């Protein structure tokens, strides 16, 4: 009884605290990656966290043991992470098996993968909206005009997004050191950008409210 009371008074042991912190990171990164990259499960994010904490390349078997998951599940997620440009496969001279490591520092590799994926999505949707416009061609009628207007608006927006990404986001296939990039931007420039973004957001909200009010008044007899 005394030893149990002493344990309660002392709180969690160092090992318990370490395990709790480690598990929190594994679960958090797992949820983040699964929500952001289609085809990669929570296990994929946990693999990223495990490689980050290990700070050395690990084999598929080591990762399987570390996370208590089957090799088949680990392998499938490793392939997805490799395709996303987050990890890389290595084979040391004379080694009988591959090892896996992050392509760069964490979270730089995640940021780089986000940027690359966002760039691909914008370009794909830009091409899709243009293709749909071409297929519509010279079709006539109210329905065709409505569709043409929607597709034209969509194309304009994706063109704008693509242009903005070309101006602001680096063309890097790999990790993006966001901390280093931000450190190189003078504070007055960041402040001006923040103010401009806030003003644009406020203007957009005001226009949206005005549009809703206009539609509501138009429906009122």
Automatic annotation (TrEMBL):
Q: Is DNA-binding one of the keywords UniProt gives this record?
A: yes
**Protein's UniProt keywords contain Electron transport:** no
Q: Which organism is it from?
A: Chondromyces crocatus
Residue ranges of the HTH marR-type domain? 39-92
Q: What is this protein called?
A: HTH marR-type domain-containing protein
What keywords is this UniProt entry annotated with? DNA-binding, Transcription, Transcription regulation
Q: InterPro entries, alphabetically?
A: HTH-GbsR_regulator, HTH_MarR-typ, WH-like_DNA-bd_sf, WH_DNA-bd_sf
| MF (Gene Ontology) | DNA binding; DNA-binding transcription factor activity
> What PANTHER family does UniProt report for this protein, alphabetically?
HTH-TYPE TRANSCRIPTIONAL REGULATOR MJ1563-RELATED
- Pfam family of the protein (one): MarR_2
